[in-house]
Amino acid sequence: MKTNINSKSQIVNYKWLCKLLTAAFLLGLGIWGLGLGSCLAQGVAINADGTNAADCSMLDVSGSTMGMLIPRVSLTDVTVYAPLTGTAVTSLLVYSNTAPTGGSGVGYYYWDASGKWVRLGSGNGSMVTGSGTATQVAFWNSASALSGDNGLYWDNTNIRLGIGTTSPGGYLDINPTYTGATVTNVFNQKSGFTLNNGAATVTNWYGLYIVAPTVTAGTLTNRYALVTEANAGNVGIGTTSPTYKLHVIGKIKTDDIDETSDERLKKNIVTIDNALTKVETIRGVYFNWRSDEYKDRNFDTTKQIGVIAQEIEKIIPEVVSTDADGYKSVEYSKLVGLLIEAIKELKIENTTLKDENNARKADIENLKIEIRAKNEQQNIIGASSKISK
Q1: Is residue 184 very low, low, confident or very high in pLDDT (cuts 50, 70, 90)?
Q2: CA-CA-CA-CA torsion for 236, 238, 239, 242, nearest 10 degrees?
Q3: Rounded to an integer, what distance in angstroms lies between the CA atom of residue 143 and that of residue 197?
Q4: 42: helix, strand or coil
Q5: pTM over 0.85, yes/no
């Protein structure tokens, strides 16, 4: 017999309301009478302790040892309503035992207004929609939808993030390709960028800038920084304010240095004169850096050999430069030209001395010959005198 619904909530027997709930799900025609008396459509409570239904709920189910089973079906495709029958209604909820095509595996799905099954999200319980490509980094493109982008990729095996590349070579690999007429600003952090399909102009390019770390506790023993100065295009290692194209604070080790010296790039070429005299006035010294007073320069603490810039500047100013802070430096490689010409001058002097020495040797030999000849002549004269007597 069908029950009448009045305007007050009523607590019903747990066993009988389970039957009532089953009938409501199967028939969808309201609450049928099962010999329970009367109950409210907007206030039915199913529990074991007699608690009234919440006034905001038509059905209030609670329990500490049992749950509520949602109908279990096998969805085949998120766009296919079957195997369910009847009219498709938005918000219809099921649990799919199978992973439907286009879905997100096994789980709870609801039928949405666009005419497809949407899986309920995990974690915070939100309903997330969207699609992407494997290894793409997902981002929110609306309040409830995720999307991917061809420019962002994550290598979970090697813990690497790629921007503009699908195969990041480092923890952060930035290598975008720009397509278009004009690129105003380029921020890059690896090997460069690619201009393609008519990109005509790059106004500014910014390289890699690693700032010094902030230490709020403990001790930072060493700081290493690689900095590119945007305006002048200078690169600094161990300094955050490079004043040269490559400004290094500390010791450099390299297998080779190749310096440009092509004649076609030079003019006003003149051979160094009086090179030997200049070399004779240069003082070579042993010294130690004042590393305890200039700790930020990372000076080597071992005994050094070299020259004094202030002394060299008075003799060969072309190899001495002064930075913005007034400190002087010497381009030792440029001393090679001076030493070459000094050696040549020394060789000329040596050759001259050799020639003079050889000439003197020849004179001595000639004198020896003359002496021998005179001695022989005197011997002949002496012998003749004895015979005549």
Answers
A1: low
A2: -20
A3: 35
A4: coil
A5: no
